[in-house]
Write a structure and sequence with these properties.
2 helices; five-stranded mixed beta sheet; 31% strand
Length: 161
Amino acid sequence: MNGLGTSISSVIADLVDCVCVALETDGAGPTCWCGFYPGSQVSWDYCGECSGGSCGMGYVRLVNAYRSEDMLNPDLNTRCASPLTLQLAVGAIRCIPVADDDGRLPDPESMWESSLAVLADMAALFVAADCCPGEHILGEYTPVGPQGGCAGGEWTVWVSL
């Protein structure tokens, strides 16, 4: 891997570590899977129940990359002059209650508890993205789901290399 590739993988690896630790210690608890996920969306198949009563996934994914001096606005026609900026998403999705086999809706208390878990993850991801080493700009949080008995959200983070 060349120097830039090593820098990219190092920045992403650091952010993955911050996200996974924060979800476990400050969020809703351990996830079944936590890591870097390629593509424009994460696979919701990774959100499910696993051993130890855990459910869900934590992730970092690449949204896009471009040259930029200020991280937020792409620089055009600056060949080799501007640093590379990565726009990343840091997120978590967790299991939420769904209707049972007889079509009965989950009780409000169960939905409240799962909603609080999603909010705990939102706060943990905020701290992870904002306090992880390196130069970052933290953007907005976007809720995702529900889909297939899971819901959560992700923060946008800009990182300059």
